[in-house]
Amino acid sequence: MKAKKKNRFLTFCFSCMPGAGEMYMGFLKTGLSLMSIFLLSIFGLSYFRFEEFAVVIGVTMWFYSFFHANHLASLSDEEFAEVKDSYLFAGEDFGGQIAWASKYQKVLAGLLIAAGVILLWNTATDLARNFLPEYIWKIMYTVGDYVPRVVVAILIMIVGVKMILGRKAQLAQNIVENEQKEDTAVIQEEA
Question: CA-CA distance, 122 to 52, in Å (whole number)?
């Protein structure tokens, strides 16, 4: 199917469902990618009781897809003709995704482990509600509610401190490099 501009009103209407606007204009791979990510985030993450992540990813994908489809529709004919239809994450450059994943392997592994721990804790809390006295279940629920927030807050602060320290180290390195360049220029002038 060849991509082509179509009715602006219908494009707007279809763009209200992630991926449908792109599919309507003929970008089937892009539309399928956006629709799959949206639906999998909503249904898949909700099934595993990651509702907060489902909402964040779902809303983000909805806004991205809505504005992407309307942006495509507003392009000039020449610009529109240059847009390529491709899958967002696998597609033709699957090697690029593998390289990206291997570069961030430890981060991805940490996220997967954290997701597994959260899922296991949520399941244990549900089981505890059915079999343990209410006060024990409330303790488990309270711990499960506050501990992740504290851990995420601490991680955010650590990342912020590392960014500040990294920036200071970069500035110090730039100063040293500039001084070396100035010293080299002075030595060359004297020679």
Answer: 13
